[in-house]
Amino acid sequence: METKTQSPHPAQPFALLVVGALGVVYGDLGTSPLYALRECFSRGLAPSPVNVYGILSLIFWALTLVISGKYAALIVRADNRGEGGVMALMTLVLSGFKNRAALPAKTVFILGLFGTALLFGESAITPAISVLSAVEGLDLATPKFKNFVLPISAVILATLFMVQRHGTARIGAFNGPIMLVWFIVIGCLGIDSILHHPKVLSAVNPVHAVRFFVENRAMAFVILGSVVLVITGSEALYADLGHFGRRPIQMGWYAVALPGLMLNYFGQAAAILAFPKESIANPFYFLAPRWALYPMVLLSTAATIVASQALISGAYSLTRQAVLLGYIPRLRILHTSQHSIGQIYVPLINWLLFVLTLALTLSFKTSSNLAGAYGVAVTATNIITSVLLLLHMRRNWNVHPVLAYGAIGTVLVSDLSFFTATSLKIPHGGWLPIVLAVTIFSVMTTWIRGRALVGERFRAQRMPLDLFLRSLEHTPNLSKAPGTAVFLTGNWETTPVALLHNMKHNHVLHERNLLLSIVFEEVPHVKKEDRIDIKELQAGFYGAQARYGFMESPSIRDLTDPCKGYGIDLTALSVGYFLGRENIRITKKPGMHPLRRLLFAFMARNAEGVSGFLEIPANQVVELGVFVEL
After folding, report:
1. Cβ atoms of residues 501 and 70 within 8 Å
2. Cα separation, 493 vs 465, whole angstroms
3. What's the rounded Cα separation, in Å, for the pair 574 and 133?
4. Does the pTM of the predicted model rise above 0.90?
5. Distance (Å, rounded) from C-alpha 399 to C-alpha 321?
6. What confidence tens digit (pLDDT) does each residue in 418-452 have?
7. Where are the domains of the chain?
């Protein structure tokens, strides 16, 4: 079997990377024209020039400040050894704290975890709202399709989630071209409409936005909660930094995605001014000629599938990071490619997202109904990212306070304004991402706290390794078994419980004993030469510590060659892997709420076994039960 490798983006053709970045990163942003302006005018606002220019000006400056300024120009520079995303940014900020137990460090950790929880929730909402918004174009084509929008959307979503297990490498090859065609088409449709009403270009003047607020006041603030839909997908831009690199993402945004979006929004606004009664129901599809309506629905559906695929793949990547950093239990992670470590599939996450997405589609029924929930998730995540970026600029970049607070303060004001506006929709569906995020956050914090308590219990019971090795000299009737025994342990300087149990019950010790600990660093990747440190101890014992980054998948095969230098052949069939299987006993000891104890015990029982997680041959594994009181 070939070794899975992470293909470095600089070695690939730059033009191909730009197209690929369009497909993966901008899928969600690209589908926003389907419902942003329509959502703005769905509240009975009159399509007068003042209102149209005002809303268009808000859209223009939202894209300029948040996407072009904050994300494409600034935040993509905050990479953790090439990787991006809220979790990578959190680890970057935490690296600047000497005391992780201090309140500021704990606050950063909580913010990062909650931002990650919000992204998981967004991964369930995005496929539902994107597919619904695209298929709703059929209703505009003919009323006969009105009753079929929901079933068609459900079938598309079911198909999308069912094909995930086959891998996305082949499907992903079409993502870039699809999105390139999408941006070109929507841009051309916008140009045609702008030519008939060129005065709409004056909306770039922020005075129109100010006048809109002055004349509409409360209603303008409500509309701001719909304008936020144009910046959906911004976190995907940052999260996929490691796949493509900063330059391709910036080129893809400034050269293709931004012009396509802007031209389309200005074209929609021009159509609303010219044909207010005919276009107000769905200004996006109104731009297309009658003969092109069905092809546009197909292209829009393809683009929304790309958007959904990007978020689903992002959820897999987030899951792996959270597992390796110890934030959630071990889950079954399957590799769908022998050549790229990034191509993974997480069955549990896939089907949980499918159930949630289908439930959202069938319960909310229209993309407009889901828009409120979507906006809350996006704006809350943007606020957390802005705060973390400000801390990173001050602690790690040493940016002057005036520049740091000036730059991020401007963006943070817009983020807070958007969040406050979308919070009005909390009673009307906006509660959904908050409930999802709180649930996921509770699961993560319960697991983290539970693992910490279990570690304390084990440390209190373990025997120091040097004391154990000295005791071997006074242990009579101890048989020596040929071959090598590998004992997995959290710290090889203490004696693994599985080793003590094996000696106690079997009265046997192998000729060679490797005490192996796996450590996951707060960096995306660990260099091959730094993968493992091995130390020869005494009496046939060796201590080893293997290190992995949070974007890597651990495998016992990675340690084969370094161990051979010490006479340890991990490929031999005679090698036995001894693992301690934890059995949690619920007690009334202090440290955790009873309900959280039950939740932790449930997660511990159902976590993926260490042997499968590390790809250890199943027929060479010996599991010994270890009871721990919680």
Report:
1. no
2. 5
3. 59
4. no
5. 29
6. 999 888 888 888 888 899 999 999 999 999 998 88
7. 11-448, 463-629
